[in-house]
């Protein structure tokens, strides 16, 4: 009797396996016809029997689910996340399947990353963070997604997530350093980048390019440690901040990013003597490099030291007059008090004193616009496709009554937006 029961049981398992395989095949066929909702129905029927099959078939099930969810996802992040989790599960169960679904995964990641860029531009940092982290988690190979997820978490003041992601990067030995293969185009004289070393070498052999070089991008480890230090300071955990920066500086005493972190920490803790010493050391590392002054400007701006930030941005411009970032940041600094001015203007009543104060604030605001305007106009001349600069200019022209300029900029912005 026991033998019969065992044989019956085996037959039942076989029947389940066959049934499940049939449903998966139906789902895959529906996917090929772009019938994604129908495919999901077949997969839902098969799911209760999933435990009875081997990992290879389970992987096929999750791969099909990933594709069906992605097909119905559109801009629905929950479905895109579900697709990412399904693909990740498929790879976990059967690593060989990654080759089979590689193109699907790349398409999904491209959708997530492009969505994250739009969210970031709209300052929706939480959604940008989630999309980039989801993109990373599909295969856990492209660590740059995790790095940018952490950066968006910082911008969104989600410090716990930022610390978690940064620590993940450090634990896996991430540096972010990359090699860019370049050569000079003989016709144009411009330095161009190639996807890999072989393509660069082939271009040089063709005779159309000269001066092959390999440029190593700066490691991001120092920046990660700097950001982590500042987050600990922001959270009030000065002991962790000090411990982290001491360990990092001991390992890389000449790392400029770490010097900046140490300087920022010293400023926040009121140690102005150490802060000034470190700032001098940072500048001395490469006194003719506009990037250093620009980054020091950002650092001081973030710390609330606006006058020093302006000084560093101007120094960057002195060394590189067409430095778009410095021009934009100077304009932003000059407009940084606008919110407080508008808030005060809106709070005023109708008394003669209030009306007088309103006119004073209106004049201050207009002067700030006029101070910022030349920097934004120059930035626009350098890069006419920067839509954020065009929006700033459009607002300024509107506020100061430059109607003709307003209409011209609006037309440019409308044309650029229509292309996207």
Automatic annotation (TrEMBL):
Judging by the UniProt lineage, the source's domain of life is Bacteria
Keyword tags: TPR repeat
Recorded hits in Pfam families, A to Z, give:
TPR_1
Keyword Membrane on entry: no
Q: Does the keyword Thylakoid apply?
A: no
Looking up InterPro entries in the UniProt record yields: TPR-like_helical_dom_sf (IPR011990), TPR_rpt (IPR019734)
Swiss-Prot/TrEMBL TPR repeat ranges: 290-323
Name under which the protein is recorded? Tetratricopeptide repeat protein
Q: Which Gene3D superfamilies match?
A: Tetratricopeptide repeat domain
């Amino acid at each position: 009797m026991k033998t019969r029961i065992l044989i019956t049981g085996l037959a039942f398992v076989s029947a389940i396996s066959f049934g499940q395989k049939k449903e998966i095949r139906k789902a895959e066929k529906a996917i090929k016809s772009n019938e994604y909702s129908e495919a999901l129905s077949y997969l839902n029927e098969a799911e209760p029997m999933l435990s009875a099959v081997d990992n290879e078939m389970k992987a096929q099930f999750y791969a099909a689910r990933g594709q069906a969810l992605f097909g119905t996802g559109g801009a629905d992040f929950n479905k895109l996340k579900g697709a990412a989790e399904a693909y990740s599960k498929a790879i976990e169960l059967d690593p060989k399947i990654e080759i089979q679904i590689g193109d699907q995964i790349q398409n999904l990641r491209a959708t997530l990353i492009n969505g994250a860029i739009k969210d970031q531009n709209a300052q929706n940092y939480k959604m940008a963070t989630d999309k980039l982290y989801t993109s990373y988690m599909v295969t856990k190979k492209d660590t740059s997604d995790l790095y940018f997820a952490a950066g968006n978490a910082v911008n969104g003041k989600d410090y716990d997530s930022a610390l978690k992601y940064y620590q993940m990067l450090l634990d896996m030995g991430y540096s972010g350093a990359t090699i860019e293969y370049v050569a000079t185009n003989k016709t144009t004289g411009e330095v161009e980048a190639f996807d890999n070393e072989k393509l660069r070498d082939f271009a040089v052999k063709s005779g159309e390019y000269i001066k092959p070089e390999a440029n190593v991008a700066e490691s991001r480890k120092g920046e990660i440690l700097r950001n982590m230090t500042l987050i600990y300071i922001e959270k009030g955990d000065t002991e962790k901040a000090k411990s982290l920066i001491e360990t990092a500086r001991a390992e890389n005493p000449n790392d400029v990013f770490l010097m900046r972190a140490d300087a920022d920490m010293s400023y926040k803790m009121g140690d102005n003597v150490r802060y000034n010493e470190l700032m001098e050391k940072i500048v001395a590392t490469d006194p003719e490099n506009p990037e250093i002054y620009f980054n020091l400007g950002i650092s001081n701006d973030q710390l609330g030291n606006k006058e020093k930030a302006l000084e560093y941005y101007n120094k960057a411009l002195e060394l590189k007059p067409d430095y778009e970032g410095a021009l934009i940041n100077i304009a932003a600094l000059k407009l940084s008090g606008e919110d407080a001015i508008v808030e005060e203007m809106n709070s005023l009543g109708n008394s003669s004193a209030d009306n007088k104060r309103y006119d004073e604030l209106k004049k201050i605001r207009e002067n700030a616009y006029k101070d910022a305007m030349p920097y934004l106009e120059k930035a626009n001349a350098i890069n006419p496709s920067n839509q954020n600069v065009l929006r700033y200019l459009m607002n300024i022209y509107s506020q100061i009554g430059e109607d003709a300029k307003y209409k011209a900029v609006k037309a440019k912005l409308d044309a650029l937006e229509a292309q996207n």
